[in-house]
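WARN no homologs supplied; continuing
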Amino acid sequence: MERQPIVVVLDQVEDLFTATSFAPLEGRFEPRSGMEQVLDQVALHRLHPAQPLQLKLTVRQPTEVSDDAIRTAIRGYCEAVIVDRQLDLKRIQRIGRNALLLGLGFLAACMALSTAANAATFLPEFIRRLFGEGLVIAGWVGLWRPIEVMLFDTRPPQHDIRLHRAIARAEIDVLKSA
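OK structure emitted
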């Protein structure tokens, strides 16, 4: 099954990276840049590395910019975003590791206090159970944020990296129409 090309129509080549043509009173209603449009459409497709994307870029106003320069700009933009998202990913992973160390320390302290509460025979059984089990639960809740960071906060940058890699590898056809 052949994948449908991603089609983006721009008023001028400058709209590829900035939404300069948004002017509803002049009949131009697209508030997103061309790359934002491409990203939105690529995000709707399932990305299979074996099946490259095909991007058809139409520029309505005449331009002196060559097709190769447009392709190079798109690929360079994607590479810059990939580098930026990789840095975000490393930062998130560092935050996750630090949160995990803190959470494990908190869990260990809660487990030690729980053991002490359970061993406090001078307290009634109800109080020992309340503090003993409550501290264990509090310790595990302390690991909630590290797990959230490591499992879920890393997903958006990874997704952006995949999308931009797919666009950078895409077959890009530039059509200029007047």
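Residues 21 and 92 are 36 Å apart (CA to CA).
OK
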